[in-house]
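Q: I'm writing up a methods section and want to include an example of the input and output format. Could you take the sequence below and give the corresponding predicted structure tokens, formatted cleanly so I can copy it straight into the document?
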Amino acid sequence: MDQQFSQEDEKAMFFFSLLDKNLKEIKDLGALQFYVWLRHFWPSVKSSFGRIMGRIDIVKETFKSLCKEHKKTFDPNNIRDYIDVYLNEMKEQEEKGEKNPNFNDLQLQINIQDLYFAGSETTGNTVRWAILLLALNPDVQKRAQEEIDSVIGRDRVPSYDDKKRY
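A: Here is the clean output for your methods example:
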């Protein structure tokens, strides 16, 4: 997806709060999460499972709507993002008379959910660890600051174009 969210974006923050709540609740369930059938006999597991699935349903519906909107506005001459590339591949296969079971609406929704959440969570964790390690290693922190100052300076924020300069 060619879409980025700022820290102030309410939809993004809402998704991240759902993800965070689910990760905490799943962690609290421990090994019981692998024995889903226990939810029928253990009230706390049943209620946790229900809350987790409710949050997942909200996310699934949101991404389903996003895919529907992309289908409505799809233009093969103006590919905007991953969703459009996927839709274009589905269209090309259909025109050739091919039917790949791996290219369908449900798989597209699953893919963008995975990209959104897996990418967001791992990126956030990587940044948190980097900050922790820099805090624990002042000499490395100093060298990193010197490199930033030499490549970017102190008068502006970094941009992707700075990568070419290093």
